[in-house]
Amino acid sequence: MENLVTNLDILDKNSEEACETVKTTPDQNTGKGRKLYIESYGCQMNFSDSEIVASILHNEGFDTTSEIEKADLIFLNTCSIREKAEQTVRHRLMHIHGLKKHKPELLVGVLGCMAERLKSKFLEEEKIVDLVAGPDAYRDLPKLIGQVDEGQKAINTFLSRDETYADISPVRLNSNGVTAFVSIMRGCDNMCTFCVVPFTRGRERSRNPQSIVAEAQDLFDKGFKEVTLLGQNVDSYKWSPEENNKMWLEKKGISNTVTFAMLLEMVAQISPSLRVRFSTSHPKDITDDVLYTIAKYENICKYVHLPIQSGSSRILEMMNRGYTREWYLGKIQRIKEILGDDCGISSDMIIGFCTETEEEHQETLSLMDIVQFDFAYMFYYSERPGTLAEKKYKDDIDLPTKTRRLDEVIKKQRAHALQSNLKDVGKVYTVLIEGFSKRSTNDLQGRTTTNKVIVFPKGNHEKGEYVDVFVKECTGGTLIGEVVNKAVNN
Ligand code: SAH
Ligand code: SF4
Ligand code: F3S
Hints:
Elements: E1 8-10, E2 20-22, E3 35-40, H1 44-59, E4 63-64, E5 73-78, H2 83-102, E6 107-111, H3 112-118, H4 120-125, E7 131-133, H5 141-149, E8 154-156, E9 179-183, E10 185-186, H6 197-201, E11 205-206, H7 209-221, E12 226-230, E13 238-239, H8 243-251, E14 258-259, H9 260-268, E15 275-279, H10 288-296, E16 303-305, H11 313-319, H12 325-339, E17 344-351, H13 358-371, E18 375-380, H14 388-392, H15 399-424, E19 428-436, E20 443-447, E21 453-457, E22 466-474, E23 479-486
Parallel strand pairs: 3-4, 3-5, 5-6, 6-7, 7-8, 9-12, 12-15, 16-17, 17-18, 21-23
Antiparallel strand pairs: 1-2, 10-11, 13-14, 19-20, 19-22, 20-21, 22-23
Helix pairs in contact: 9-10, 10-12, 13-15
Protein backbone atom coordinates (compact mmCIF):
# COMPACT_ATOMS: atom_id res chain seq x y z
CA MET A 1 0.00 0.00 0.00
CA GLU A 2 2.16 2.82 -1.18
CA ASN A 3 1.31 6.39 -2.07
CA LEU A 4 -0.82 7.14 0.92
CA VAL A 5 -2.63 10.39 0.52
CA THR A 6 -2.81 12.84 3.39
CA ASN A 7 -6.26 13.30 4.80
CA LEU A 8 -7.91 16.53 3.85
CA ASP A 9 -9.67 17.84 6.87
CA ILE A 10 -12.87 19.57 6.00
CA LEU A 11 -13.02 22.00 8.83
CA ASP A 12 -16.37 22.53 10.40
CA LYS A 13 -16.11 26.21 11.23
CA ASN A 14 -18.54 25.80 14.06
CA SER A 15 -16.91 22.95 15.85
CA GLU A 16 -13.56 22.82 17.47
CA GLU A 17 -12.60 19.63 15.70
CA ALA A 18 -12.99 18.60 12.13
CA CYS A 19 -15.68 15.98 12.20
CA GLU A 20 -16.31 15.38 8.54
CA THR A 21 -13.11 14.23 6.95
CA VAL A 22 -12.23 12.91 3.57
CA LYS A 23 -9.95 10.02 2.85
CA THR A 24 -8.96 8.76 -0.50
CA THR A 25 -7.92 5.29 -1.43
CA PRO A 26 -4.28 4.33 -1.76
CA ASP A 27 -3.02 2.79 -4.94
CA GLN A 28 -3.37 -0.90 -5.53
CA ASN A 29 -2.10 -2.28 -8.73
CA THR A 30 -3.54 -5.62 -9.59
CA GLY A 31 -3.48 -4.31 -13.15
CA LYS A 32 -6.66 -6.18 -13.94
CA GLY A 33 -9.42 -3.70 -13.95
CA ARG A 34 -10.82 -0.25 -13.94
CA LYS A 35 -9.68 2.19 -11.32
CA LEU A 36 -11.87 3.09 -8.35
CA TYR A 37 -11.42 6.26 -6.33
CA ILE A 38 -13.41 6.43 -3.12
CA GLU A 39 -13.85 9.34 -0.72
CA SER A 40 -15.42 8.92 2.71
CA TYR A 41 -17.26 11.45 4.83
CA GLY A 42 -18.74 11.29 8.31
CA CYS A 43 -18.11 8.82 11.07
CA GLN A 44 -15.58 6.04 11.39
CA MET A 45 -18.22 3.52 10.45
CA ASN A 46 -18.42 5.05 7.00
CA PHE A 47 -14.65 4.82 6.66
CA SER A 48 -14.85 1.16 7.63
CA ASP A 49 -17.60 0.61 5.08
CA SER A 50 -15.39 2.08 2.36
CA GLU A 51 -12.87 -0.65 3.20
CA ILE A 52 -15.62 -3.22 2.71
CA VAL A 53 -16.58 -1.62 -0.61
CA ALA A 54 -12.94 -1.67 -1.73
CA SER A 55 -12.75 -5.34 -0.76
CA ILE A 56 -15.93 -6.29 -2.66
CA LEU A 57 -14.79 -4.47 -5.79
CA HIS A 58 -11.22 -5.66 -5.49
CA ASN A 59 -12.53 -9.21 -5.68
CA GLU A 60 -14.22 -8.22 -8.93
CA GLY A 61 -10.91 -7.04 -10.40
CA PHE A 62 -11.17 -3.32 -9.74
CA ASP A 63 -8.03 -1.45 -8.70
CA THR A 64 -8.08 1.49 -6.33
CA THR A 65 -6.37 4.78 -7.00
CA SER A 66 -5.54 7.79 -4.84
CA GLU A 67 -5.72 10.14 -7.81
CA ILE A 68 -9.20 11.25 -8.71
CA GLU A 69 -8.08 12.26 -12.21
CA LYS A 70 -7.03 8.68 -12.94
CA ALA A 71 -10.32 7.14 -11.80
CA ASP A 72 -12.81 5.30 -14.00
CA LEU A 73 -15.24 5.13 -11.07
CA ILE A 74 -15.64 7.80 -8.38
CA PHE A 75 -17.54 6.84 -5.25
CA LEU A 76 -18.49 9.28 -2.52
CA ASN A 77 -19.39 7.53 0.73
CA THR A 78 -21.59 10.18 2.27
CA CYS A 79 -22.86 11.43 5.63
CA SER A 80 -26.19 13.05 6.51
CA ILE A 81 -25.68 13.80 10.18
CA ARG A 82 -25.77 17.60 9.77
CA GLU A 83 -26.82 19.79 6.87
CA LYS A 84 -23.24 20.90 6.39
CA ALA A 85 -22.09 17.33 5.77
CA GLU A 86 -24.56 17.06 2.91
CA GLN A 87 -23.56 20.43 1.47
CA THR A 88 -19.95 19.31 1.38
CA VAL A 89 -20.95 16.35 -0.79
CA ARG A 90 -22.99 18.54 -3.11
CA HIS A 91 -19.97 20.80 -3.61
CA ARG A 92 -17.78 17.83 -4.27
CA LEU A 93 -20.22 16.61 -6.92
CA MET A 94 -19.93 19.97 -8.65
CA HIS A 95 -16.18 19.45 -8.89
CA ILE A 96 -16.69 15.90 -10.19
CA HIS A 97 -19.11 17.30 -12.78
CA GLY A 98 -16.16 19.25 -14.18
CA LEU A 99 -14.10 16.05 -14.44
CA LYS A 100 -16.91 14.19 -16.16
CA LYS A 101 -17.10 16.82 -18.88
CA HIS A 102 -13.61 15.75 -19.97
CA LYS A 103 -14.25 12.06 -19.38
CA PRO A 104 -17.87 11.21 -20.17
CA GLU A 105 -17.37 7.49 -19.46
CA LEU A 106 -16.58 8.28 -15.79
CA LEU A 107 -18.97 6.41 -13.47
CA VAL A 108 -20.10 8.44 -10.44
CA GLY A 109 -21.62 6.66 -7.47
CA VAL A 110 -23.02 7.93 -4.19
CA LEU A 111 -22.94 5.55 -1.25
CA GLY A 112 -23.69 5.77 2.45
CA CYS A 113 -26.14 7.73 4.52
CA MET A 114 -27.02 10.52 2.10
CA ALA A 115 -27.69 7.90 -0.59
CA GLU A 116 -29.99 6.11 1.82
CA ARG A 117 -31.76 9.30 2.89
CA LEU A 118 -32.39 10.67 -0.58
CA LYS A 119 -32.74 7.41 -2.51
CA SER A 120 -33.90 7.95 -6.11
CA LYS A 121 -34.28 11.68 -5.44
CA PHE A 122 -30.50 11.79 -5.69
CA LEU A 123 -30.62 10.62 -9.30
CA GLU A 124 -33.21 13.29 -10.09
CA GLU A 125 -31.41 16.09 -8.26
CA GLU A 126 -27.84 15.36 -9.29
CA LYS A 127 -27.79 14.44 -12.95
CA ILE A 128 -24.14 13.39 -12.93
CA VAL A 129 -24.80 10.60 -10.43
CA ASP A 130 -25.07 7.19 -12.14
CA LEU A 131 -25.35 4.93 -9.12
CA VAL A 132 -26.87 5.18 -5.65
CA ALA A 133 -26.21 2.50 -3.01
CA GLY A 134 -27.28 2.54 0.64
CA PRO A 135 -25.12 1.14 3.48
CA ASP A 136 -26.63 -2.35 3.31
CA ALA A 137 -26.40 -2.67 -0.49
CA TYR A 138 -22.67 -2.93 -1.04
CA ARG A 139 -22.67 -6.60 -2.02
CA ASP A 140 -24.85 -5.51 -4.91
CA LEU A 141 -22.30 -3.00 -6.24
CA PRO A 142 -20.84 -5.23 -8.99
CA LYS A 143 -24.37 -5.76 -10.36
CA LEU A 144 -25.20 -2.06 -10.07
CA ILE A 145 -22.01 -1.13 -11.92
CA GLY A 146 -23.01 -3.64 -14.62
CA GLN A 147 -26.34 -1.86 -15.01
CA VAL A 148 -24.62 1.49 -15.45
CA ASP A 149 -22.29 -0.10 -18.02
CA GLU A 150 -25.41 -1.05 -19.95
CA GLY A 151 -26.50 2.55 -20.02
CA GLN A 152 -28.95 2.63 -17.11
CA LYS A 153 -28.94 4.46 -13.82
CA ALA A 154 -28.61 2.02 -10.90
CA ILE A 155 -29.97 2.16 -7.38
CA ASN A 156 -30.26 -0.10 -4.32
CA THR A 157 -31.21 1.44 -1.00
CA PHE A 158 -32.80 -1.56 0.71
CA LEU A 159 -31.99 -1.73 4.38
CA SER A 160 -31.36 -5.16 5.79
CA ARG A 161 -32.16 -6.65 9.18
CA ASP A 162 -29.18 -8.97 9.16
CA GLU A 163 -26.40 -7.68 6.88
CA THR A 164 -23.15 -7.21 8.84
CA TYR A 165 -20.61 -7.97 6.08
CA ALA A 166 -19.16 -10.36 8.66
CA ASP A 167 -17.41 -12.55 6.09
CA ILE A 168 -15.82 -9.69 4.14
CA SER A 169 -12.24 -8.99 4.97
CA PRO A 170 -11.82 -5.21 4.60
CA VAL A 171 -9.05 -3.80 2.40
CA ARG A 172 -7.30 -1.45 4.84
CA LEU A 173 -7.26 2.00 3.26
CA ASN A 174 -4.93 4.78 4.42
CA SER A 175 -3.69 2.50 7.14
CA ASN A 176 -0.75 3.38 9.36
CA GLY A 177 -0.24 -0.37 9.88
CA VAL A 178 -0.58 0.07 13.66
CA THR A 179 -4.18 0.97 14.46
CA ALA A 180 -7.36 -0.30 12.79
CA PHE A 181 -11.11 -0.16 13.19
CA VAL A 182 -13.32 -3.22 13.45
CA SER A 183 -17.04 -2.87 12.98
CA ILE A 184 -18.98 -4.94 15.55
CA MET A 185 -22.53 -3.92 14.75
CA ARG A 186 -24.59 -1.86 12.33
CA GLY A 187 -27.63 0.39 12.55
CA CYS A 188 -29.23 1.89 15.63
CA ASP A 189 -32.48 1.14 17.46
CA ASN A 190 -32.42 4.28 19.57
CA MET A 191 -34.62 7.04 18.38
CA CYS A 192 -32.84 10.17 19.49
CA THR A 193 -35.18 12.77 18.06
CA PHE A 194 -32.43 14.87 16.43
CA CYS A 195 -30.72 11.97 14.70
CA VAL A 196 -30.90 10.74 11.14
CA VAL A 197 -28.85 7.57 11.72
CA PRO A 198 -31.75 5.16 12.47
CA PHE A 199 -33.23 6.17 9.10
CA THR A 200 -30.01 5.93 7.12
CA ARG A 201 -28.50 2.85 8.75
CA GLY A 202 -31.56 0.86 9.68
CA ARG A 203 -32.17 -1.54 12.54
CA GLU A 204 -29.45 -2.46 14.95
CA ARG A 205 -27.75 -5.81 14.39
CA SER A 206 -24.68 -7.33 15.97
CA ARG A 207 -21.94 -9.09 14.09
CA ASN A 208 -20.95 -12.66 14.83
CA PRO A 209 -18.30 -12.52 17.61
CA GLN A 210 -16.26 -15.28 16.00
CA SER A 211 -15.75 -13.14 12.88
CA ILE A 212 -14.88 -10.11 15.03
CA VAL A 213 -12.27 -11.99 17.03
CA ALA A 214 -10.89 -13.55 13.82
CA GLU A 215 -10.56 -10.10 12.21
CA ALA A 216 -8.81 -8.65 15.27
CA GLN A 217 -6.50 -11.71 15.47
CA ASP A 218 -5.68 -11.36 11.78
CA LEU A 219 -4.84 -7.67 12.27
CA PHE A 220 -2.59 -8.56 15.18
CA ASP A 221 -0.89 -11.29 13.13
CA LYS A 222 -0.23 -8.68 10.43
CA GLY A 223 1.51 -6.40 12.93
CA PHE A 224 -1.33 -4.12 14.01
CA LYS A 225 -1.19 -3.17 17.69
CA GLU A 226 -4.53 -1.51 18.31
CA VAL A 227 -8.12 -2.21 17.34
CA THR A 228 -11.09 0.06 17.93
CA LEU A 229 -14.42 -1.76 18.08
CA LEU A 230 -17.06 0.31 16.35
CA GLY A 231 -20.81 0.68 16.72
CA GLN A 232 -23.35 3.49 17.18
CA ASN A 233 -24.12 2.09 20.62
CA VAL A 234 -21.59 -0.60 21.49
CA ASP A 235 -23.18 -1.27 24.88
CA SER A 236 -26.19 -2.82 23.22
CA TYR A 237 -24.04 -5.36 21.34
CA LYS A 238 -25.80 -8.70 21.71
CA TRP A 239 -25.23 -12.02 19.99
CA SER A 240 -27.11 -15.22 20.64
CA PRO A 241 -25.25 -18.38 19.74
CA GLU A 242 -26.52 -20.30 16.76
CA GLU A 243 -25.77 -23.88 15.94
CA ASN A 244 -22.77 -23.05 13.77
CA ASN A 245 -20.77 -21.16 16.33
CA LYS A 246 -22.11 -22.72 19.51
CA MET A 247 -19.04 -24.91 19.63
CA TRP A 248 -16.68 -21.99 19.22
CA LEU A 249 -18.40 -20.15 22.08
CA GLU A 250 -18.53 -23.26 24.27
CA LYS A 251 -14.76 -23.60 23.90
CA LYS A 252 -14.56 -20.12 25.37
CA GLY A 253 -16.87 -21.20 28.20
CA ILE A 254 -19.85 -19.21 26.89
CA SER A 255 -23.24 -20.84 26.49
CA ASN A 256 -25.59 -17.90 26.54
CA THR A 257 -25.81 -14.48 24.87
CA VAL A 258 -22.57 -12.63 24.17
CA THR A 259 -22.68 -9.11 25.62
CA PHE A 260 -20.37 -6.21 24.84
CA ALA A 261 -18.40 -6.84 28.04
CA MET A 262 -17.84 -10.46 26.95
CA LEU A 263 -16.82 -9.43 23.44
CA LEU A 264 -14.40 -6.86 24.81
CA GLU A 265 -12.82 -9.54 26.97
CA MET A 266 -12.48 -11.96 24.03
CA VAL A 267 -10.69 -9.33 21.94
CA ALA A 268 -8.49 -8.27 24.86
CA GLN A 269 -7.40 -11.88 25.33
CA ILE A 270 -5.89 -12.04 21.83
CA SER A 271 -2.65 -10.60 23.22
CA PRO A 272 -1.54 -8.25 26.00
CA SER A 273 0.27 -6.25 23.32
CA LEU A 274 -2.91 -5.61 21.33
CA ARG A 275 -4.59 -2.46 22.57
CA VAL A 276 -8.37 -2.39 22.50
CA ARG A 277 -10.56 0.71 22.23
CA PHE A 278 -14.25 1.08 21.46
CA SER A 279 -16.73 3.72 20.39
CA THR A 280 -19.47 4.86 20.99
CA SER A 281 -20.85 4.16 24.45
CA HIS A 282 -24.34 5.27 25.37
CA PRO A 283 -24.91 6.69 28.87
CA LYS A 284 -28.18 4.80 29.26
CA ASP A 285 -26.63 1.44 28.34
CA ILE A 286 -23.02 1.34 29.57
CA THR A 287 -22.82 -1.28 32.34
CA ASP A 288 -20.59 -1.84 35.35
CA ASP A 289 -19.68 -5.14 33.68
CA VAL A 290 -18.09 -3.22 30.81
CA LEU A 291 -16.26 -0.94 33.23
CA TYR A 292 -14.97 -3.91 35.29
CA THR A 293 -13.77 -5.58 32.07
CA ILE A 294 -11.88 -2.41 31.12
CA ALA A 295 -10.35 -2.35 34.59
CA LYS A 296 -9.39 -6.05 34.43
CA TYR A 297 -7.30 -5.82 31.27
CA GLU A 298 -4.27 -3.57 31.05
CA ASN A 299 -4.57 -3.57 27.25
CA ILE A 300 -8.14 -2.22 27.20
CA CYS A 301 -7.62 1.52 27.03
CA LYS A 302 -8.77 3.59 29.97
CA TYR A 303 -10.89 5.91 27.90
CA VAL A 304 -14.65 6.25 27.45
CA HIS A 305 -16.40 8.40 24.87
CA LEU A 306 -19.76 9.06 26.51
CA PRO A 307 -21.81 11.64 24.58
CA ILE A 308 -23.99 13.77 26.87
CA GLN A 309 -25.61 15.97 24.14
CA SER A 310 -27.11 18.41 26.69
CA GLY A 311 -26.74 19.21 30.39
CA SER A 312 -30.45 19.84 30.81
CA SER A 313 -32.78 16.97 31.74
CA ARG A 314 -35.71 18.64 29.98
CA ILE A 315 -33.76 18.87 26.72
CA LEU A 316 -32.47 15.31 27.14
CA GLU A 317 -36.07 14.17 27.47
CA MET A 318 -37.01 16.04 24.30
CA MET A 319 -34.04 14.42 22.60
CA ASN A 320 -35.31 11.01 23.79
CA ARG A 321 -31.86 10.12 25.09
CA GLY A 322 -33.24 7.90 27.84
CA TYR A 323 -31.26 9.43 30.73
CA THR A 324 -31.21 12.56 32.85
CA ARG A 325 -28.41 14.93 33.85
CA GLU A 326 -28.23 13.14 37.23
CA TRP A 327 -28.06 9.67 35.64
CA TYR A 328 -25.23 10.85 33.42
CA LEU A 329 -23.32 12.28 36.37
CA GLY A 330 -23.89 8.97 38.17
CA LYS A 331 -22.29 7.12 35.25
CA ILE A 332 -19.30 9.46 35.33
CA GLN A 333 -19.00 8.72 39.03
CA ARG A 334 -19.03 4.95 38.34
CA ILE A 335 -16.34 5.34 35.66
CA LYS A 336 -14.15 7.18 38.15
CA GLU A 337 -14.83 4.67 40.95
CA ILE A 338 -14.04 1.65 38.78
CA LEU A 339 -11.38 3.05 36.44
CA GLY A 340 -9.87 5.79 38.56
CA ASP A 341 -9.68 9.57 38.17
CA ASP A 342 -7.13 9.21 35.42
CA CYS A 343 -9.54 7.54 32.96
CA GLY A 344 -10.04 9.67 29.82
CA ILE A 345 -13.61 10.85 29.28
CA SER A 346 -14.88 12.65 26.20
CA SER A 347 -18.26 13.71 24.91
CA ASP A 348 -20.46 15.01 22.10
CA MET A 349 -22.69 18.02 22.63
CA ILE A 350 -25.52 19.53 20.65
CA ILE A 351 -26.05 23.21 21.32
CA GLY A 352 -29.26 25.14 20.64
CA PHE A 353 -31.66 22.21 20.35
CA CYS A 354 -35.32 23.17 19.91
CA THR A 355 -36.65 25.38 22.76
CA GLU A 356 -33.32 25.39 24.66
CA THR A 357 -33.47 28.32 27.10
CA GLU A 358 -30.55 30.40 28.32
CA GLU A 359 -30.79 28.60 31.70
CA GLU A 360 -30.68 25.21 30.01
CA HIS A 361 -27.64 26.28 28.05
CA GLN A 362 -26.08 27.27 31.38
CA GLU A 363 -26.84 23.74 32.62
CA THR A 364 -24.71 22.34 29.79
CA LEU A 365 -21.89 24.68 30.81
CA SER A 366 -22.22 23.73 34.48
CA LEU A 367 -22.22 20.03 33.66
CA MET A 368 -19.01 20.58 31.74
CA ASP A 369 -17.53 22.23 34.83
CA ILE A 370 -18.46 19.22 36.93
CA VAL A 371 -17.22 16.52 34.54
CA GLN A 372 -14.28 18.38 32.96
CA PHE A 373 -14.18 16.41 29.71
CA ASP A 374 -10.75 15.75 28.29
CA PHE A 375 -12.10 16.22 24.82
CA ALA A 376 -15.42 16.96 23.12
CA TYR A 377 -17.06 17.22 19.71
CA MET A 378 -19.40 20.19 19.79
CA PHE A 379 -22.04 21.05 17.24
CA TYR A 380 -24.96 23.37 16.97
CA TYR A 381 -28.25 21.68 16.25
CA SER A 382 -28.94 21.06 12.59
CA GLU A 383 -32.47 19.99 11.81
CA ARG A 384 -32.61 16.84 9.70
CA PRO A 385 -35.54 16.05 7.43
CA GLY A 386 -37.58 13.05 8.50
CA THR A 387 -36.33 12.94 12.08
CA LEU A 388 -38.72 12.96 15.03
CA ALA A 389 -37.52 16.42 16.09
CA GLU A 390 -38.28 17.80 12.66
CA LYS A 391 -41.79 16.43 12.87
CA LYS A 392 -42.49 17.35 16.48
CA TYR A 393 -40.57 20.50 17.34
CA LYS A 394 -39.74 23.87 15.86
CA ASP A 395 -36.07 24.58 15.20
CA ASP A 396 -36.58 27.88 17.01
CA ILE A 397 -33.16 28.93 18.27
CA ASP A 398 -31.84 31.47 15.80
CA LEU A 399 -28.42 31.00 14.24
CA PRO A 400 -26.68 33.91 16.05
CA THR A 401 -27.85 32.46 19.40
CA LYS A 402 -26.74 28.95 18.42
CA THR A 403 -23.29 30.14 17.37
CA ARG A 404 -22.88 32.33 20.45
CA ARG A 405 -23.81 29.47 22.78
CA LEU A 406 -21.57 27.10 20.83
CA ASP A 407 -18.67 29.55 21.17
CA GLU A 408 -19.17 29.60 24.93
CA VAL A 409 -19.15 25.81 25.05
CA ILE A 410 -16.04 25.60 22.85
CA LYS A 411 -14.19 28.17 24.99
CA LYS A 412 -14.99 26.25 28.14
CA GLN A 413 -13.97 22.96 26.58
CA ARG A 414 -10.64 24.44 25.44
CA ALA A 415 -9.93 25.56 28.99
CA HIS A 416 -10.84 22.12 30.36
CA ALA A 417 -8.70 20.31 27.79
CA LEU A 418 -5.71 22.46 28.72
CA GLN A 419 -6.33 21.87 32.44
CA SER A 420 -6.56 18.15 31.83
CA ASN A 421 -3.31 18.13 29.85
CA LEU A 422 -1.52 20.22 32.48
CA LYS A 423 -2.45 17.57 35.06
CA ASP A 424 -0.51 15.02 33.00
CA VAL A 425 2.72 17.01 33.02
CA GLY A 426 5.27 15.18 35.18
CA LYS A 427 3.64 11.74 34.66
CA VAL A 428 4.89 8.78 32.64
CA TYR A 429 2.53 7.11 30.15
CA THR A 430 2.88 4.00 28.03
CA VAL A 431 2.42 5.13 24.46
CA LEU A 432 1.79 3.15 21.30
CA ILE A 433 3.76 4.85 18.52
CA GLU A 434 1.55 5.50 15.49
CA GLY A 435 4.03 7.28 13.22
CA PHE A 436 5.78 10.58 12.68
CA SER A 437 4.35 13.71 14.28
CA LYS A 438 2.39 15.96 11.93
CA ARG A 439 5.09 18.63 12.09
CA SER A 440 8.42 16.83 11.84
CA THR A 441 10.04 13.54 10.95
CA ASN A 442 12.39 14.07 13.89
CA ASP A 443 9.43 13.48 16.19
CA LEU A 444 7.09 10.56 16.66
CA GLN A 445 3.55 10.57 17.90
CA GLY A 446 1.26 8.13 19.59
CA ARG A 447 -1.53 8.04 22.12
CA THR A 448 -1.75 7.36 25.80
CA THR A 449 -4.22 4.80 27.10
CA THR A 450 -6.43 7.82 27.92
CA ASN A 451 -6.47 8.72 24.19
CA LYS A 452 -4.30 11.82 24.39
CA VAL A 453 -1.93 12.55 21.54
CA ILE A 454 1.69 12.80 22.66
CA VAL A 455 4.69 13.94 20.61
CA PHE A 456 8.33 13.14 21.45
CA PRO A 457 11.78 13.02 19.79
CA LYS A 458 12.26 9.95 17.62
CA GLY A 459 15.51 8.62 19.03
CA ASN A 460 15.84 5.06 17.79
CA HIS A 461 12.16 4.22 18.16
CA GLU A 462 9.71 3.17 15.51
CA LYS A 463 6.01 3.03 14.85
CA GLY A 464 4.26 0.02 16.33
CA GLU A 465 6.48 0.05 19.45
CA TYR A 466 5.26 0.73 22.98
CA VAL A 467 7.39 3.24 24.87
CA ASP A 468 7.13 4.85 28.28
CA VAL A 469 7.06 8.60 27.79
CA PHE A 470 7.62 11.27 30.43
CA VAL A 471 5.29 14.24 29.87
CA LYS A 472 7.39 17.44 29.96
CA GLU A 473 4.91 20.02 28.78
CA CYS A 474 1.68 20.42 26.85
CA THR A 475 -0.60 22.55 24.73
CA GLY A 476 -4.40 22.39 24.85
CA GLY A 477 -4.40 19.65 22.21
CA THR A 478 -1.15 17.74 22.64
CA LEU A 479 1.20 16.40 25.28
CA ILE A 480 4.94 16.81 24.65
CA GLY A 481 7.41 14.42 26.21
CA GLU A 482 10.47 12.23 25.96
CA VAL A 483 10.92 8.47 26.02
CA VAL A 484 12.23 7.11 29.31
CA ASN A 485 12.35 3.49 28.24
CA LYS A 486 10.85 0.83 26.03
CA ALA A 487 7.63 -0.40 27.61
CA VAL A 488 7.20 -3.95 28.92
CA ASN A 489 4.19 -4.82 26.77
CA ASN A 490 6.04 -4.87 23.42
N1 SAH B 1 -24.31 7.02 18.30
C1 SAH B 1 -23.64 8.09 18.86
C2 SAH B 1 -23.58 9.33 18.01
C3 SAH B 1 -23.57 9.28 16.55
S1 SAH B 1 -23.73 10.77 15.69
C4 SAH B 1 -24.34 8.48 20.17
O1 SAH B 1 -25.47 8.14 20.38
O2 SAH B 1 -23.75 9.17 20.94
C5 SAH B 1 -22.38 11.72 16.33
C6 SAH B 1 -22.79 12.98 17.00
O3 SAH B 1 -23.33 13.89 16.06
C7 SAH B 1 -23.86 12.86 18.04
O4 SAH B 1 -23.38 12.40 19.25
C8 SAH B 1 -24.39 14.25 18.13
O5 SAH B 1 -23.68 15.01 19.08
C9 SAH B 1 -24.14 14.81 16.75
N2 SAH B 1 -25.40 14.98 16.01
C10 SAH B 1 -26.25 14.02 15.63
N3 SAH B 1 -27.32 14.56 15.02
C11 SAH B 1 -27.14 15.90 15.02
C12 SAH B 1 -27.91 17.00 14.55
N4 SAH B 1 -29.09 16.82 13.98
N5 SAH B 1 -27.40 18.25 14.73
C13 SAH B 1 -26.21 18.43 15.32
N6 SAH B 1 -25.45 17.43 15.78
C14 SAH B 1 -25.91 16.17 15.64
FE1 SF4 C 1 -28.27 8.64 16.66
FE2 SF4 C 1 -29.03 8.28 19.13
FE3 SF4 C 1 -28.51 6.18 17.61
FE4 SF4 C 1 -26.53 7.74 18.44
S1 SF4 C 1 -27.84 6.49 19.72
S2 SF4 C 1 -26.86 6.98 16.38
S3 SF4 C 1 -27.46 9.75 18.43
S4 SF4 C 1 -30.19 7.63 17.33
FE1 F3S D 1 -22.88 10.31 9.15
FE2 F3S D 1 -24.08 8.07 8.63
FE3 F3S D 1 -22.03 8.11 10.25
S1 F3S D 1 -25.06 10.00 8.96
S2 F3S D 1 -22.16 10.11 11.20
S3 F3S D 1 -21.97 8.60 8.14
S4 F3S D 1 -23.78 6.77 10.38
